[in-house]
């Protein structure tokens, strides 16, 4: 893989990671809820899911799934149900994340990791992203090094981007102000997740 080709891959991965959506909402929620550490755990768990999709695309399984509508639709529906469940949980949050913190109910590390990897694995839009834009780079992966780059570039870019988000949001001058609006953020993230779930089902 040439340097110019890898730079093209890097640019697409950056654009994909920076695109706002449920992944950003999830990292924000866990950062506000559990602090910097939980936000970073959520970020890198999410990036592992991205790495898995990269590996799946590299192996050609994504194309197989796309050609098997029943399998693809089943994955999409499971993902939509999980997104909707997380949205309902956010909407039903009593008093927002600030109340949870006051009651000693901050997010635990396992929950942050679980939500991070699930929001990536159960989001069919990520599969479509790899199918539409990523497959072209798989075609030029003619060595082990190139194949490793195809897997680890999106994984590392995604993890670093959401780690940066967690670090910025957990800054001492930013976090208290955001926590004051934690209830509103809960509700907004819940609405975003539910709308995404509806869109996933509607577009099947």
Q: Can you walk through the features of this model?
A:
The protein has 204 residues and is mainly α. Helix content is 84%, strand content 0%. The chain is built from 11 helices and no strands. The chain has helices at residues 3-18, 22-34, 36-59, 61-67, 69-91, 96-102, 109-121, 124-138, 144-169, 175-180, 182-202. The longest helix is centred in the last third of the chain and has 26 residues, at 144-169.
Average per-residue pLDDT, rounded, comes to 78
**Order of H and E elements:** HHHHHHHHHHH
Return the structural class.
mainly alpha
The oligomeric status of these chains comes to single chain
Number of strands: 0
| N→C terminal distance | 35 Å
Total count of helical runs of at least 4 residues: 11
Which band does the percent of strand residues land in? under 5%
Radius of gyration: 18 Å
In one word, what is the shape? globular
Helix content: over 70%
Biggest beta sheet summary = none
Detail the poorly predicted runs: 96-105
